[in-house]
Amino acid sequence: MSTFANPASESAGADLGPAGIIARLDRMTVWSLSYLFIGIIGTGFLFTFYDIFDINVSFVQTCVQLKSGCTPENALDSLSLPVVLNLVGYVIGTLVLSPICDRIGRRNMLLITMLVTGLGSLYNALAPDYGNFIAARFITGIGIGADLAVVNVYLNEVAPRRGRAKFTAVVFVMSALGALIGIWLGLLLTTGKSPWPEGLPFALASDSFTSGWRWMYAIGAILALLSILVRVELPESPRWLVGQGRIADADAVVAGMEAHASRRGPLAEPVIGSDVEIKPPAKLPYREIFGSRLYRRRAALLLVMWFTGYITVYSYASGFTSVLTGIKYAPPTAGVIAAVGTLGFVASSVFMALFAERLHRHYWLPINTAITLVGALLVGLAGSHLGLAFLGSAVIFFGFNGWVSPSYALTAESFPTRARSTGFALVDGVGHIGGCLGIVALAPALPHLNATAALVLVTLGMVVASVLAQFAPSTRGRVLDEVSP
């Protein structure tokens, strides 16, 4: 029978002090918040990936309408600038806002980041010219970059220790839905009617309807507003509260989690690890990372892992249409191939939600890299066989998105609570520069290579990242404060 099955026992747990609250949290083996909160947390991922993918197809219409001299034939040549500035915004946003998160709390920052993101998307929808469109992409990136870091950190701190990768993958299903909505809505609203499979026969863009891209960003702003409204209901991370010395608040959150968890069965006795020390909050979170040999080494390794991995991830996520046109597919056909690929994204998210905890994070990364390579070979060898290109695209999206969610879990687990958001931001944020490199440096080189060689080159970044990940700490099922004291 659970020690915390009644209020008296919960008070006894609180008497154990900060370490006792962490022990109570670590003993829970099931999701211990309302299941509604999984969807609430996931709204950020849904918007983020909607925003990442919507430009993949819609940019042709945007460019033609806003940029002088831009035509449907040459529009994708200009895609790199808004994508790169959006990623620069990611880097700045996550490096500036995430350390503030370690000071003011996860929940408060989740509201701030989504507000910034929503305003950026609204600015995109109303942009009067190309310069303003570029500026709006930068602002949106500031919010999204920080939001990705804070969502992953929050999820890592409230999920059961034997389910951190699982619930990261569960929430990542919302990412897949965002990508699916973004890219297919782009086809519907911003491309002209074309017979399948070169396009959509019921697409809406025409000489009399050229503002579909504005509607896409307006929908993004609405999604951000809804996300803000529901995020107000989230409790603060009890781990962060303990680190701030707010023991009574942390006890209240954990007691609520215990009440949810006890409905699934009795809770084990809390065990306070003898080597677990609850350290005070960091006044300068970056100093916590750079002042420790352990965290300096982890940060260096994970930064290079994300840098090289994002070369591949963003070449496919935000630039796949450019990659495909670079290997001689017409822009409308490239958009359809990328859209079909998002079905692989959905399948990957569901698969990882079911099986993420079956293997260590280190093993999933090379497995999903191999899957991505298989997809690249299929698309490269497809030639004019669109069915094979569709299959290869779905396999690519299955692989590279299956790579991301265990990498998120591994990264958040590798830094201490007092600077977890900062550590995640540092490696993931600076790592996005690799995404810039993929968009800027690789795309111009692709037309000079055969299709297979081009797609294998794009995927090599993930190969390097997966090798590096083998040297990261083993985190599966371990107590956070033991992995990252």
Automatic annotation (TrEMBL):
Domain Major facilitator superfamily (MFS) profile: 37-476
Transmembrane region(s): 30-50, 79-97, 109-127, 133-155, 167-192, 212-230, 299-317, 337-356, 363-382, 388-411, 423-443, 449-469
Transmembrane helix is among the record's keywords: yes
Protein's cellular compartments: Cell membrane
Membrane topology according to the record: Multi-pass membrane protein
Gene3D superfamilies on file: MFS general substrate transporter like domains
InterPro entries: MFS_dom (IPR020846), MFS_sugar_transport-like (IPR005828), MFS_trans_sf (IPR036259), Sugar_transporter_CS (IPR005829)
CDD domains, A to Z: MFS_SV2_like (cd17316)
Chief location category: membrane
SUPFAM superfamilies hit by this protein: MFS general substrate transporter (SSF103473)
Alphabetically ordered keywords of this record: Membrane, Transmembrane, Transmembrane helix, Transport
Family annotation (PANTHER family): SYNAPTIC VESICLE GLYCOPROTEIN 2
Listed name of the protein: MFS transporter
Origin organism lineage: Bacteria, Bacillati, Actinomycetota, Actinomycetes, Propionibacteriales
